[in-house]
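User: I'll paste a sequence; please echo it back and then give the predicted structure.

Assistant: Echoing your sequence first, then the prediction.
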Amino acid sequence: MTTAYEPNKVLVNEEFKVVGTRPIRPDGADKVTGRAQYGADYNAADLLYAKVLRSPYAHAKIRSIDTSKAESLAGVLAVVTGADTIPPKDGESADFGLGPQPMKYLRDNAIATDKVLYQGHAVAAVAAQDVHTAEEAIKLIDVQYDVLDPVLTAPEAMKKTAPILHSDLTTDEFGNSNVADHFQHKMGDLDKGFADADVVIEREFNTATVHQGYIEPCNVTALWNDDGRIHVWLSTQGPFQYRDALALALDIPQSRIKVTPMEIGGGFGGKFPLYHELAAVLLSRKTRRPVKIVMSRREVFEGTGPTSGSNINVKMGAKKDGTIVAAKAELRFEAGAYPGSPVGAAGMTSFTCYDIPNVVVDGYDVVVNKPKAGAYRAPGAPNAAFGIEQVVDELSKKLGIDPVEFRLQNCAKEGTRRADGPVHPKVGGIETLEALKDHHHYQSPLTPAKNGGKVGRGVAFGFWFNAGLQSTVTISVNADGTVNLVEGSPDIGGSRASISMQAAEVLGISADEVKPLVADTDSIGFSFGTGGSRTTFATGWAAYEAANDVKAQLIDRAANIWGVDPESVEMQDGIVRSKTDTELSMTFKDLSAQLNDTGGPIIGRGSVNPAGVGGAFAANIIDIEVDPETGKVDILRFTMVQDAGKAIHPSYVEGQMQGASVQGIGWALNEEYYYSKDGTMDNSSFLDYRMPTSLDLPMIDTVIVEVANPGHPYGARGVGEVSLIPPQAGIGNAIENAVGVRFESLPMKPSVILDGINNQNN
C-alpha cells in the first residue's frame, strides 16, 4: 500500500530563500551519464594491479610465509608481507577512539605479522602487470599456520576458559583477557527505583554481525613518488583520517601523504578504516609505480569492517501510572579482532529517549575472531534499541497504555539529564512522537493481510546524538557572479547540495550559482570525515562562515568603489546597497565583474569546530504480515518520522530516512554474517547475504519534523543516522503483536519465526 506523504511538520519560525528548497543536485549529471570518477575508474601510466592473500582460518599463528614462487612468476613485480611493515616500538601506541592502543593493532589489521585473527585477514599482497597474474601469484604463496580455536561471540570470549586473542591486551579489572574495555554510566539509585516499580520486565537480546552493504567495493590506487611523497586515490568517507592513519602506520609525517577522495558509492560508516591501502603503498614503494587494488565482493564481506554483533540484557521498571522509574542495560559488543566496538555510542544512546531517574548502563568491548568492527550508521544504537524498545513495548502492554502514549509520557525533553552525563538542549522528541500519533497511518485500521497471514503493527523510538567536529571551506568569487566552493568532506548523501545551499543563502544567490568541489588533503584545511551525521551541520556551518567572509569583503569593496564608510553599506538578498543613499546599489553579479579592477580576487574562508550539536529523534509505525506456515515476514506499510531540525534540502532528508529504514528492515529480517564453528563465513556474497530489494519493500512514507536546533545558524540537526535505530525493534514489536511471540535475536528470519510459532503452539 502506498499513501500520499503527510505534510511535514514545520516548526521552524524563520523562512529562507534557498535553505529548505529542493534544487537539482550538482553531481547528478555526471552520475547519470557515467562521467563521475569512482576509485576503480582511476588510471595512471605504468599502473600495476594487486591482489591480497587472505587467511582461510579465523585464528592461527603464522609459522612461515614463502613468497619465492610468486616472486618468480612472469609479470610479478613485487610481493609484500607483514615483514615489510614497520616493526613496533616499545610502548608505541595511538588513540583509535578507545584510548591508547598498541600501534601494532593498526598495522596488523592491514597486514598480519605473527597471527591471523579472522578469516579474510590479509597476510600478503602481490603487484603484477595485470589482475589475472596477481590472482595466480597469490595462489603460489605458501603460508604455514598453527591453527587455534576461534571464539565468535562476546559471551563466549568473556569466559575465563576462552582462547585469548592478544597476549598484550590487559585491563586492571580483567587482566589479560578478551575484554578490552568496561565502562559504566550511573544515575540515581537503581535498587530503589526497581523497588518502587509496580511492573518490572527483564530480557536478553542478541544481534548478529551485519555489513553496511555499500554498492561500490573498497578500492585504492597508491603511488610512492621518487621524491618520497605518497599520493593515494580511493573511495573514502574520511580522507584526512586515512592520511593520518597511513602516516601512523608508515611512521612518516602527514605532510608526505596526499589523499584524493574519489566519488563514493556508499559507505554508511564502513569506509573510514585502513584496509588494503597499506599493502598498496608498500607495493608502490618497492616498484615505484602506481598500484591499484579493487576488492571483490567476497573480500568486502570478509576483509572490511562490519558492525558488531552484540549480547544485551535489559531490565526496566515502571509504576502503574505509566512512569518509568528504573532501567538497566548490560551491553556486550563484539569488537572483532582488535579493540574498538561501537559499545560507547550504544551506552550514550541507551534509554536517552526517556526521562528516567534511575539508570545504570554497563558496556563491554570484547575482541572476537571476526573482522575488526567498523561503524555502521548510528553505530551501536540500533543494537541497544532493539532490546530497549521491545521492553518498553512490553511494559506498555502490561500497564494497558497505548505504546505511543507511554513513550510520550516518559519522553526526554529540554533539561532532561542523560545517564552518560549531558543534559538535553532543545530537542524534538515529543514533537516527533506527536507527529507519529497524529499520522493517518497510526489513526487508521491495521493494514489487511495480503496473503492470508497474521498481521501486526509495531512502533519504536530512537535517538542519535549527532556530531560536530572540524570542517573547513573556502569560497572564491568568479567574475560572472558565480562562486566556487571547496570543501574537504566527501559527498555521500547530498552534502554538496546542502552545503552549497547554506552558502547561497548568505550570499543571496541561487544554489546552482555555487559550484562545489570536494578537494584533496593538500588543497583544503583539515576536515573530519563524512559520518556521525555531521557534514551538513558542521561543513555547512563552515560554508556559512566562508560566505559571510565573502560578504564582508564585498561590502568593503563596494564601499571603496563608492568612497563611503563600510559601516554604511549592507548586503541583503544578493544586492549590495548603501544604507543612506538609495542611488548606491549593485547586484552581486555586477560587483563580481569589477573585482579584478578594484583590488583583485575575493576568497572567503571558514574553519569551524562547532559545539552546538543538536541530537535527533526518530520514530516509526510498521505494519507487517507473518505467514504462519513459512515464518516469512512481509512489510505492508512503513512510516518514518524524524526531527531534522531544519531540513536544508528536504528531498535529501527524505532519502536518508528511506535509506536508513530499508537498511533497518534488512537488519531485522534477513541480514547476518553466518559463521561455521571454525569461524568461516558461509554467506559472503549478495546471493547468500540477503539484503532487501525493491520487491521486498513497500513505499517508505516519511514525515520531517522541524524543531530548529538553536546551535546552528539555520537550525540544522544531523539526519543520516537516527532513522536506522527504531526499525528493528519496531518490526519485532509488530511481529509480537501478530503472532504473540517476542523474538529476542536478530535477524528474525523465517526459520526462527516458524520455530517460535511452533514452540508456542506446542
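The mean pLDDT is 96. The first strand starts at residue 9 and ends at 10.
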